[in-house]
TrEMBL record:
<dbReference type="GO" id="GO:0006260">
    <property type="term" value="P:DNA replication"/>
</dbReference>
<dbReference type="GO" id="GO:0009378">
    <property type="term" value="F:four-way junction helicase activity"/>
</dbReference>
<dbReference type="GO" id="GO:0046872">
    <property type="term" value="F:metal ion binding"/>
</dbReference>
<dbReference type="GO" id="GO:0006310">
    <property type="term" value="P:DNA recombination"/>
</dbReference>
<keyword id="KW-0067">ATP-binding</keyword>
<dbReference type="GO" id="GO:0043590">
    <property type="term" value="C:bacterial nucleoid"/>
</dbReference>
<dbReference type="Pfam" id="PF00570">
    <property type="entry name" value="HRDC"/>
</dbReference>
<dbReference type="InterPro" id="IPR002121">
    <property type="entry name" value="HRDC_dom"/>
</dbReference>
<keyword id="KW-0227">DNA damage</keyword>
<keyword id="KW-0233">DNA recombination</keyword>
<feature type="domain" description="Helicase C-terminal">
    <location>
        <begin position="214"/>
        <end position="365"/>
    </location>
</feature>
<dbReference type="InterPro" id="IPR014001">
    <property type="entry name" value="Helicase_ATP-bd"/>
</dbReference>
<dbReference type="InterPro" id="IPR004589">
    <property type="entry name" value="DNA_helicase_ATP-dep_RecQ"/>
</dbReference>
<dbReference type="Pfam" id="PF16124">
    <property type="entry name" value="RecQ_Zn_bind"/>
</dbReference>
<dbReference type="InterPro" id="IPR044876">
    <property type="entry name" value="HRDC_dom_sf"/>
</dbReference>
<dbReference type="GO" id="GO:0006281">
    <property type="term" value="P:DNA repair"/>
</dbReference>
<keyword id="KW-0238">DNA-binding</keyword>
């Protein structure tokens, strides 16, 4: 039997373990259960692959990433590791071959989709072989809060009941305490040793900018900072994925679309071009990316606001796995907030579920509107204390905060007057037109020029007013309601209107962070 460091060098060709890999591997080889939280690119795979090679029997890896199993198995086979997989893409004959290899103990690793476990067919197969360990990859899929929830994962607790002596290692890049607790409980891993790696990705520069003209802003990012670089651009909807990819291609940029509405063959072809060709850009919904191991993704851009900090961190974590400087760039605007609030309001699920979604969105908004270091705030969200990083937009060009109490009062009283005096609700645009004293058709139609607030807000420009609305929404001092996204007061609004509360706001720096000497080109 070889020991772990021999396997590391002889089979995988690496000289040393990274981070906590060695401790994790020793623990699992010794028969212990483990819950491993490590950022994307941290090197989770070796944590189960090496114990599977060292311990007698077959290591069974449960993974939801069916589309990647073939690639993973091919990569292992190329290293001389005996690996196979079982999922719905195999036909009956192929399946029989792998099953026979497993039962005969001819495999080191067997990758398994979680589907069969609940039905029992996979369990009956597993009982016929000798198992060295269970690895549960992407373990956050068991969490009902996350956007990756897979009901089949709930059945995985059966593994412990049937094979109490086989060590289990659950791995994920999602790390909030809530998710961690949920994973441990649902997978019966409360007794498992917990390994939490630092979540910092120092080579990623985080930047969040106001959305003015997103296409133009994106193009500038690509042309000035990342020409010819590989990257991922996330959009919220399939339609905007298509449009953005088309736009980039028209501009002579190599971009491919990826979303769940494309047929499987197109998705597979685009994914494989992205992985194999240099400098490809994938424009995608969040359906793309889990398990993608491409080391030289130089940027991840978000054209729409992510629904949670977890999602944002996981998506941006796909940049710079090779450790070289990379950019995480997000543009967001008032419309994003309105749209997401509407989606939450219209979502299926009970009130508690919607409150959960709203809390996730609020944390994301707080990150967007922060005046402190983005990384400090991100890591704090994952329970880690750190110092200002010097490599994010707020560190590079510190935004000023300003006392926005008076504008906040003006805006809130406009909403209040429309509500009280006219029994009317409007979106942000109408309130801003009123404050700016604009005599639009809609203003004339509703005789809004007669309101006492008409024209009292000319000290700010329209874009600044939109920023005020955005920040009031982010701070919970204003709400968005209904399918038209109309503005409404919240309980907290009264404190601002009653002068009992000050409102500090973030002023966007004049220059973008990239002009501060941090750019690569
Ligand atoms: P994760 O699953 O945590 O996202 P992977 O297991 O895919 O990360 O590893 C990320 C990259 O780091 C891979 O290319 C892997 O080969 C490499 N890697 C992992 N461990 C080591 C190590 N000890 N030394 C060098 N490279 C490593
Ligand atoms: Zn910083």
């Amino acid at each position: 039997m070889q020991d772990a460091s021999q396997v590391l060098s002889r089979i995988f060709g690496y000289d040393s373990f990274r981070g906590e890999q060695q401790e994790i591997i020793d623990h699992v080889i010794g028969g212990g259960d483990a819950l491993v939280l490590m950022p994307t690119g941290g090197g989770k795979s070796l944590c189960y692959q090496i114990p599977a090679l060292v311990r007698p029997g077959v290591g069974v890896v449960i993974s939801p990433l069916i589309a990647l199993m073939q690639d993973q198995v091919d990569a292992l086979t190329a290293l001389g590791v005996k690996a196979g997989f079982l999922n719905s893409t195999l036909d009956l004959d192929e399946r029989r071959v792998v099953e026979a290899q497993f039962v005969a103990g001819e495999l080191d690793l067997l990758y398994l989709a979680p589907e069969g476990l609940a039905s029992g067919s996979a369990l009956r197969l597993l009982e016929r072989g000798r198992i060295s360990l269970f690895a549960i990859d992407e373990a956050h899929c068991v969490s009902q809060w996350g956007h990756d929830f897979r009901p089949d994962y709930l059945a995985l607790s059966v593994l412990h009941e049937r094979w109490p002596d086989v060590p289990r290692i659950a791995l994920t890049a999602t790390a909030t305490t809530a998710t961690r607790t949920e994973i441990a409980q649902r997978l019966q891993l409360t007794e498992a040793r917990l390994f939490v790696s630092s979540f910092d990705r120092p080579n990623i520069q985080y930047r969040i900018v106001p959305k003015n003209d997103p296409k133009k802003q994106l193009l500038e990012l690509l042309r000035t900072e990342h020409p010819g670089d590989a990257g991922i651009i996330y959009c919220l909807s399939r339609a905007s994925v298509e449009k953005t990819a088309e736009f980039l291609v028209q501009q002579g940029i190599d971009a491919l679309p990826y979303h769940a509405g494309l047929d499987a063959a197109t998705r597979a072809a685009n994914q494989s071009r992205f992985l194999r060709e240099d400098g490809m850009i994938m424009v995608a919904t969040i359906a793309f990316g889990m398990g993608i191991d491409k080391p030289d993704v130089r940027f991840v851009a978000h054209l729409d606001l992510p629904k949670s900090v977890e999602g944002y961190y996981q998506e941006t974590g796909r940049a710079g796995r090779d450790g070289l400087p990379s950019t995480a760039w997000l543009t967001y605007g008032l419309q994003d907030v309105v749209q997401q609030r509407k989606m939450i309001e219209g979502s299926a699920g009970d009130a508690a579920y919607r409150r959960g979604l709203a809390a996730h969105l609020d944390a994301m908004l707080a990150l967007c509107e922060t005046v402190q270091c983005r990384r400090v705030q991100l890591l704090a969200y994952f329970g880690q204390v750190s110092e200002a990083c010097g490599n994010c937009d707020t560190c590079l060009v510190p935004p000023e905060s300003w006392d926005g109490t008076v504008p906040a009062q003006k805006l809130l009283s406009t909403v209040l007057r429309l509500q009280r005096e006219r029994n009317q609700r409007f979106g942000a645009g109408q309130s801003i037109d009123i404050l700016l004293g604009r005599k639009t058709d809609k203003v004339a139609q509703h005789r809004h020029e007669e309101l006492t607030v008409f024209g009292i807000g000319t000290e700010l420009q329209e874009s600044e007013w939109r920023g005020v609305v955005r920040q009031l929404l982010a701070q919970g001092l204003l709400a968005v309601q209904g399918e038209h996204g109309t503005l409404a007061l919240t309980d907290a609004s009264a404190d601002v209107l009653g002068r009992r509360r000050e409102v500090m706001m973030r002023r966007e720096p004049e220059r973008a962070a990239r002009s501060s000497g941090s750019s690569r080109k």
